[in-house]
Amino acid sequence: MRGLRVRRAGLDAEELALLADISAAVGDDRGLAEELTPVLRVSTREVERRIDDGKSLTRRMPQLLASMRTGELEAYGARRVLTVVDPLNDDAARQVDEVLAEKLVEAPETAWQPGNLAQRVRRLVEKVDPGGQTERARRARTERKLELTPGEHAMSSLEAHLPAEVAAACYSRVDGMARSLRRGRDGRTLEQLRADVTADLLLGRDPGVTPPEAAAMVYLHLPADAALSISDERCELDGYGPIPAPIAREIMTNARSTWRAVLCDPGTGEPVDLGRTRRRPSAVIRDLVRVRDRECVMPWCHRPARHCDHDHQHPWATPDTGTAGGAGGGSTSVANGGPRCRRHHRLKDQPGWNTHYNPTHGITRVTTPHGATYTSRREPVLTPSRTTPTREAPTGRRTARAGPARDTNQEQQNNDTPPF
């Protein structure tokens, strides 16, 4: 399969480079797309996308194109990167291309997974062109829309393009209501319940359950100086990634946001640990683990932590129920916990899989049944300081939970986001 991927990536690079050459020679991309539609046997819009991708790669991101030629990246992953850098001018895009190539030299293999790669590029774009981030975000938010796409077998898709925090809040609300119905022994699957709850809310029908207390809440991470408008340091939206500081402050100051303070160690950029000895994690432990890790700890999974299980890295056991000799097991604490989506929580105990997560350092190591090992490292919540401060000089960090107010018509209209 690796060999097939390398060959396919090389062919993708050859096709995109050739399309860029033909485009330069013809000078009429619209006519060229129409002419190539029956040749490539894809839609005209897809041909236009490939022509644009080829031109962007050859002119703006030659290092990324070289990675395709060596088999590291296929056309889909390249398109994810190009979408992120598309608003940049040519010079800024080439700068991102150079820095990305340098960083990928020593990066783990999982860094090439399209979702991971796009997330890495977002951070580079933020550093290369910090002044343009806010303008691009504001422009994108004005282009919000709802799309209906007919599908097969008498089905269609309804997709809402919304501001990231609104989309996350909508999904959290729908997911919370679906899970409440599921706990009530409803026979539908969670996917069916989410779809049905969404339809009921949009159509003004009673979905049969009220939203849980924490539904429609999302975490917003921002340093204290960014919250006070002293700086525009990196801010992140849980389950999405970096967002401009002015946008983060707008979310933070929304009258419907709920604040909670989380103390972080400025030397490491991580929240302070909270130890517990009981089996079921307290709400404080669950929240702090979700704030710290933000996503499922598997290297290629980006399911937000708020939709994951709280997993004990070292299995929990009391001295009475532990291993021989009463040694016990892992404690229920932030230092022994991590978020795993339900799929990867179950996979952890499957024969042949060896997964280890170090909550303290944020390192995940996964060995598959056939012996391949993948390693990834968690990005710190805050950018660590150059020197570790003394215990007498802690810094605070605000975490905003942003989401629509409950029981409003506007919120019901916004509850139409697709799952993550």
TrEMBL record:
Picking any one GO molecular function of the record gives: endonuclease activity
Provide ranges: composition bias, Low complexity. 386-407
Please, which domain of life does this record's source organism belong to? Bacteria
Which residue ranges does the record annotate as region Disordered? 313-420
Establish whether keyword Coiled coil is in the entry.
no
Skewed-composition ranges (Polar residues): 410-420
- Keyword entries, A-Z: Endonuclease, Hydrolase, Nuclease
Q: Which residues are in the DUF222 domain?
A: 31-293
Q: What is this protein called?
A: HNH endonuclease signature motif containing protein
Q: What is the protein's species of origin?
A: Prauserella alba
Name the lineage: Bacteria, Bacillati, Actinomycetota, Actinomycetes, Pseudonocardiales
